[in-house]
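Supplementary Methods. Inverse-folding protocol.

Structures were first reduced to a discrete structure-token string of length 76. This string, shown here, constituted the complete conditioning input.
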């Protein structure tokens, strides 16, 4: 069985921004997996010592496309 390999696109300090980026990338055909420490994703998010960081992963074969889309996302 072939396993899809995901690669890190970016680390963000805001879950809301990560969710928006996820929606934007998926709308443009790029699958997304978000990873965040559970303590950072609570009613009162923690952002000290990197606990609130959200890592955005995309399939390796779509990393170049995702980087371009991320640049466009930041321009808007």
């Amino acid at each position: 069985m072939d396993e899809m390999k995901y690669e890190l696109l970016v680390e963000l300090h805001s879950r809301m921004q990560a969710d928006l980026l996820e929606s934007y990338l998926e709308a443009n055909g790029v699958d997304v997996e978000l990873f965040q420490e559970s303590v950072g994703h609570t009613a009162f998010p923690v952002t000290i010592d990197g606990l609130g960081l959200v890592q955005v992963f995309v399939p390796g074969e779509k990393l170049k496309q995702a980087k371009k889309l991320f640049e466009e996302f930041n321009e808007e």
